[in-house]
């Protein structure tokens, strides 16, 4: 049976060959092999198993007679061609049926032969690929299912797909469905929605749930985590990543959620805190953005700025003459960045207590404090009358800068004189023609300032006299309470936003707070750092006028 056993093993190889050659179905070929079907040469050509019928003598020379003993259903007529009949030496074999000449000539010239060595090599290659594939599948689970892998490899009939099915079946042993209520009989009463985002199903759903609770996004109706506490969401984040939490107490479990490298929980809390900080920054009621100049610096070194009158008039370039380089001079304003920041912690106790304030209110207030810090720096330039680094003279100086109006009150006459001071500023002999765009006043003067600037007529004049208000709407009133702390009667005129007055520079132009987080060592939780890199400095005095009583 050795040869028959070999045929059994290579059946999967030869069936596709015969199917393609004859046009028969694989089931028909398999049935013929199972019945040990024998055909004459003419029948082989007729059925498509052979291309050409050759001479019987040459065909018989290719047959090993010992093989006859291995077959049970060989026709007697074929046996007679190989083995002489017993007891009748004169018996002649039956003549071989000959295929029609036209059929023989129409077939291909080369006969179909089976190379046992090639088939055996192909079979061995398929076995090697099967074993390698099974080993790769089981390698994902370590040595946990080593015995099952050995059984699959030993079973030559076990394909790669069958090995995968066996592995999944083994892994599923002892596991029961977590949603047993969601069967056909209970589906009407129970529904568990599934929230999907960018492929990280659990992480996206947890993030959406926390954002909704914080008020930054609308709650998704199909999100099954909407009503869960922070403690429950921490557990879900770990379980979804394959981390067992059944043996952990709440402090350990939440600590693991913060520190586990594959857990999304810490990053989700960081995202919520960052949203809160940015909301606090953006909604902070600060006024400096309306009139200051925004700049950017790429590092913390001292940078130089050229003021409004940095260059005089352009020189004429005659025909054929060369252009000349301008010189900015040594007297330039300087500005440098500084870092401002604070720390706060999101503790494990806050997560266990489901304290959303640590994710919303505290970061939001820090965002407001960050912007207030910049505002303090800006208005301190005005209130303290800082010196300009370009000439080492106070920003507001009546003698050297001609930008101080004394004995000024909030009326048309004082505003007209202050506007003239700004309009008459020069660079050398050239007038700069700077126009005021804002009036910075303490809140105590806000009402009277709006009345004077927005009135059609001058206060005290007869309404029918036709006297117009010469300063009507010439500037926008900005009331700043920090000015009240210094004086309730002093006010300032400034040029349009973007002019060289007071510059607020940010590192690489990032004008929002930066948040960072790390696991705390001195606290049970994570420490969050809020910082902003900014620099504030006066650039030029000619775009500002100070009015004092």
What features would you describe in this structure?
The chain has 3 domains: 119-171; 203-263, no CATH class; 264-549, phage-related protein like fold (Alpha-Beta Complex), CATH 3.90.1690. The chain is 38% helix and 13% strand. The protein is built from 19 helices and 14 strands. The radius of gyration is 47 Å and the shape is elongated. Residues 58-62, 87-91 and 181-199 have low confidence and may be disordered.
Number of domains: 3
Compute the gyration radius: what is it? Answer: 47 Å
Query: How far is the N terminus from the C terminus?
Result: 122 Å
Question: Which CATH architecture of the largest domain?
Answer: Alpha-Beta Complex
InterPro entries: ClpP/crotonase-like_dom_sf, ClpP/TepA
GO biological process, one term: proteolysis
GO molecular function, one term: peptidase activity
Keywords: Hydrolase, Protease
């Amino acid at each position: 049976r050795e040869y028959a056993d070999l045929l059994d093993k290579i059946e999967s190889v030869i069936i596709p060959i015969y199917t393609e050659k004859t046009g028969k179905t694989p089931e028909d070929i398999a049935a013929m092999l199972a019945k040990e079907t024998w055909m004459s040469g003419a029948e082989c050509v007729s059925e498509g198993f052979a291309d050409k019928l050759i001479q019987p003598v040459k065909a018989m020379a290719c047959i090993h007679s010992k093989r006859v003993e291995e077959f049970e259903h060989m026709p007697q007529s074929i046996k007679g061609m190989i083995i002489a009949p017993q007891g009748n030496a004169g018996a002649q074999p039956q003549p071989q049926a000959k295929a029609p000449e036209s059929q023989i000539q129409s077939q291909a010239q080369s006969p179909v032969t089976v190379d046992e060595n090639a088939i055996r090599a192909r079979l061995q290659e398929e076995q090697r690929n099967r074993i390698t594939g099974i080993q790769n599948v089981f390698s994902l689970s370590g040595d946990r299912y080593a015995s099952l892998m050995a059984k699959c490899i030993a079973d030559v009939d076990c394909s790669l797909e069958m090995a995968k099915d066996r592995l999944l079946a083994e892994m599923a042993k002892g596991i029961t469905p977590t949603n047993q209520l969601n069967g056909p009989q209970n589906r009407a009463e129970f529904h568990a929605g599934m929230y999907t985002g960018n492929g990280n199903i659990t992480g996206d759903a947890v993030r959406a749930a926390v954002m909704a609770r914080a008020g930054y996004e609308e709650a998704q109706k199909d999100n099954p985590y909407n009503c869960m506490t922070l403690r429950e969401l921490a557990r879900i984040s770990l379980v979804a990543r394959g981390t067992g939490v059944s043996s952990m107490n709440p402090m350990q479990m939440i600590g693991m959620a913060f520190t586990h490298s594959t857990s999304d929980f810490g990053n989700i809390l960081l995202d919520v805190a960052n949203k809160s900080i940015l909301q606090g920054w953006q909604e902070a009621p600060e006024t400096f953005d309306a009139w200051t100049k925004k700049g950017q610096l790429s590092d913390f070194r001292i940078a130089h700025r050229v003021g409004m009158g940095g260059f005089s008039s352009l020189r004429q370039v005659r025909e054929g003459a060369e252009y000349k380089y301008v010189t900015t001079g040594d007297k330039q304003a300087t500005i440098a960045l500084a870092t401002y920041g604070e720390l706060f912690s999101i503790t494990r106790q806050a997560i266990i207590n489901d304290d959303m304030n640590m994710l919303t209110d505290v970061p939001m207030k820090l965002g407001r404090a960050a912007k207030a810090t910049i505002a303090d720096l800006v208005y301190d330039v005005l209130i303290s009358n800082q010196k300009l680094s370009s000439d080492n003279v106070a920003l507001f100086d009546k003698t050297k800068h001609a930008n101080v109006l004394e004995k000024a009150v909030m009326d048309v006459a004082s505003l007209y004189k202050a506007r003239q001071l700004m309009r008459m500023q020069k660079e050398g002999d050239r007038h700069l023609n700077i126009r005021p765009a804002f009036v910075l006043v303490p809140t105590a003067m806000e009402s009277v300032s709006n009345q004077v600037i927005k009135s059609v007529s001058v206060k005290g004049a007869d309404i029918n006299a036709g006297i117009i208000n010469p300063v009507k709407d010439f500037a926008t009133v900005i009331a700043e309470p920090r000015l009240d702390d210094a004086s309730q009667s002093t006010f300032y005129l400034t040029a349009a936003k973007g002019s060289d007055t007071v510059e607020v520079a940010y590192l690489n132009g990032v004008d929002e707070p930066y948040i960072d987080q790390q696991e705390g060592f001195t606290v049970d939780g994570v420490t969050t750092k809020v910082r902003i890199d900014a620099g504030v400095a006066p650039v030029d005095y000619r775009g500002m006028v100070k009015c004092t009583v």
